[in-house]
Amino acid sequence: MILNKENAEMELKKAEVSNPGDWVKHSYYVALACETITAHTDDLSKDLAYCYGLLHDIGRYPGRTSEKHLIDGYRYCMNLGWDKAAQICISHAFMIQDIHTSIGTFDVSKEDYTFMEQFVKNAVYDDYDRLVQLCDSLALPTGFCILEKRFVDVTMRYGFHPYTIARWKKILAIKDYFDEKCHCSIYELLPGIIENSMR
Fold first, then answer.
1. How many whole angstroms separate alpha carbon 165 and alpha carbon 183?
2. Against a cut of 0.90, is the pTM above it?
3. pLDDT per residue over 108-166, tens digit each?
4. Is the dihedral of CA 12, 100, 127, 137 positive or negative?
5. Please, is 106 exposed, middle or buried when counting C-beta atoms within 10 Å of its C-beta (0-12, 13-18, 19+)?
6. Are the C-beta atoms of 58 and 76 separated by less than 8 Å?
7. Which of 10, 8, 185, 176 is nearest to 82 (CA)?
8. For 10-26, b where at least 16 C-beta lie within 10 A, e where not — what string?
9. Tally: H helices and E strands in the chain
10. What is the C-alpha end-to-end distance of the chain, expressed in Å?
């Protein structure tokens, strides 16, 4: 199946039927952030960026899980022939390329953990991986938000971990990178970001 916006949206709608929840609205805002930021770059496809953002959490389709959603999403997209989207289903959670920096619970088999550990270690990240990592931290189910708002949101739900601050620093560095690519602060590109961050 060709990866395009129509097919990606169709798959997300199927996943929503299977497991409705705020994760779907979050995914749409991640996709919109990816598309909007990419439109201000010279070398990235805004359509592909939208698809990657939309599908990054597709592994939540079976129900409520922790890190299992990463490998479930990988397999879901691989079955459709969407290799890069599959990679991002895992890579979006590891802005630091080390599985031990996870803030979630590895509710997976020993074999799946070993696979993910090696996958993260050996993956070659590009700007699409980095973009989804960034936009995942710019999107609440209610809209766009500044990074610090999302940092607090995630920490309140998952707790403070040994790599929490290092993960924050990495995302802030990725923001700086995309600020340079866009020749402006990405915050200027995302409508309602200040208002939504104040809620």
1. 27
2. yes
3. 999 999 999 999 999 999 999 999 999 999 999 999 999 999 898 888 887 888 999 99
4. positive
5. middle
6. yes
7. 8
8. ebbeebbeeeeeebbeb
9. 10, 2
10. 40
Burial of 198 (0-12, 13-18, 19+ CB in 10 A): exposed
Extract the tokens encoding 114: 């070993």
Contact 164, 103 (CB under 8 A): yes
Contact between 89 and 55 (Cβ < 8 Å) = yes
Q: Are 73 and 59 in contact (CB under 8 A)?
A: yes
C-alpha span between 187 and 38 (Å, rounded): 13
Cα–Cα distances (Å) from 105 to 25, 42, 113, 159, 178, in that order, read: 23, 38, 11, 12, 30
Placement of tokens 């070659």 in the chain: 124
Nearest to 138 by CA among 79, 178, 100, 109: 178
- In the chain, the amino acid numbered 86 is A
For the chain, what percent of residues have pLDDT higher than 70? Answer: 100
Please enumerate, as own/partner, the contacts of 116-119 that have beta carbons within 8 Å and a separation of 24 or more. Answer: 116/67, 116/70, 116/71, 116/90, 119/74, 119/90
Rounded to 5°, the CA angle 132-28-108 comes to 60
Give helix 83-91 / helix 46-55 axis angle, nearest 10°. 50
